[in-house]
Amino acid sequence: MSETIDTTELGEKIVKVLKTIYDPEIPVDIYELGLIYDVFVNEDQEVKILMTLTTPNCPVAETLPVEVEEKIKTIDDVKDAEVEITFDPPWSQELMSEEAKLELGLL
Question: Which positions fall inside the MIP18 family-like domain (predicted)?
């Protein structure tokens, strides 16, 4: 019988990595910025991340999803990673964490 993977623990590792990726125009990581909508981890240790960008015309639209995918793939327990971009719902400042709002002087 194969070893059972703790998807909660793996999810925490993924979030930790996501918090090291910053939007180049805003000094806040993409997780606190609210760009990550969902993280799915299946039993085969494959990860799918549903994320958005601040705008459809975001200058990092081509590079940021690739960076997210590559960094997630560096986690030992991850076999594969895929990033899907969505604009539904569109990103807004309400999606930002309190920490991000504080950092940007919005509180």
Answer: 12-85
E runs forming strands in 1-107: 36-41, 46-51, 80-85
Phi, psi of 91 (to 5 degrees): -65, 145
Of 25, 19, 12, nearest to 63 by C-alpha is 25
For the stretch 14-66, pLDDT in tens is 999 999 999 888 889 999 999 999 999 988 899 999 999 988 888 888 899 99
Rounded to whole angstroms, how far apart are CA atoms 64 and 83? 10
Domain spans, the chain: 7-92
**Class of the 7-92 domain?**
alpha beta
The torsion of the CA quartet 87, 93, 97, 99, rounded to 10 degrees, works out to 140
Distance CA 38, CA 72 (A): 14
pTM, full prediction: 0.89
